[in-house]
Amino acid sequence: MKSLEAFGGLQREATEWRHYLHENPELDYRLHNTAKFVTEKLASFGINHIETGIAETGIVALIQGEGGDGPTIGLRADMDALPIVEASDKPWSSKIPGRMHACGHDGHTAMLLGAAKHLASTRKFKGSVALIFQPAEEIELPSGGLKMVQEGIMDRFSISQVFGMHNKPGMEIGTFGICDGPIMGSQDDFDIIVKGRGGHAASPHRTVDPVVIAAQIIVGLQSLVSRKIDPMESLVISVTKLKAAEAYNVIPDHVEIAGTVRTLAPALRDFAEREILASAQGIARGFGADVEFKYRRSVPVTFNHTEETNLSVTAAGNLVGAASVDDKVGISMGAEDFAYMLEARPGAMIFLGNGTSPSLHNPAYDFNDEALSYGIGYWVSLVETVLPL
Hints:
Layout: H1 8-23, H2 32-44, E1 49-54, E2 58-64, E3 72-78, H3 105-122, E4 128-134, H4 144-150, H5 153-156, E5 159-168, E6 176-177, E7 181-184, E8 186-195, E9 199-200, H6 210-228, E10 235-243, E11 250-251, E12 254-263, H7 266-286, E13 290-299, E14 302-304, H8 306-320, E15 325-326, H9 339-344, E16 347-353, H10 372-386
Helix pairs in contact: 1-3, 3-10, 6-7, 8-10
């Protein structure tokens, strides 16, 4: 097993970096201060090949190992925050109202910076490491992961394999979780506009009430999963938005419904797009109304490749011992745009324990600093496992 003592000093530095990033969160592609901070740190480590401005504020930096020529592997960290008012009450809470690092991307960035510093000083590997600092993971299309792939980073930097890591609340500090195949779900989004005929709330018989119809559609959508899908398959349809009239005495002409679809199978994305429309349309027309429907394919399934999953298990086990690595971790139906990188190159996403913290995207969430050394150590162990001298 690789000793964590080598990363003790780096953990202290990485904690300072994370707290600074947490205090100064930035959103989507507008990561100008964050990108400047990361670029300056990378340069201070003696890394000479740093390319900025990829997908607007993304960064890729290359470190060459002392073993000479060999393949290049990519290590990816996301950098953006979320539009959430923080309620963690930490001394390093966000200084910018309405923005916070509620998903731990500050920790992800700090861990990859820590690994970069260690790898740049030791270089005990053959080939090269591409450090990928990605913007805009939290937004809908085009997300930063997709945009970096579209801008050609895999070919441009000759990346043959790519790896990601995400913290996971509820998993113990010092533990890792991964599985072969699907590890996170796809994400699609839909909008339904129910078109009826409005009028006075005191005379509903003179209207075609889209509020009542929308309620029927919302209930009807639940039966698509419970009655039309094999219970052994995974599909989630959640209605998350509902907008109608703003007055007590008005029945509106239309009602807006929106929601999200999560699954592990591409065929179920086709099913959801087809059946949501059919169900909504059928219900609406039965009441004398109609619908307008939009369905957007967003993030694909995050799919771990077998060889790279096994390499990740070995690297994590070398760091913390096999007993602390769950290689059949439960699949998350959350989506992750690292999936685009895994479509472009073989690779794997691994979960890192964040302890008993509040859940991701919760106003009280905070990345656990105790996890930093484990994340840094994992990246170093992975590089030395995949690119041995």
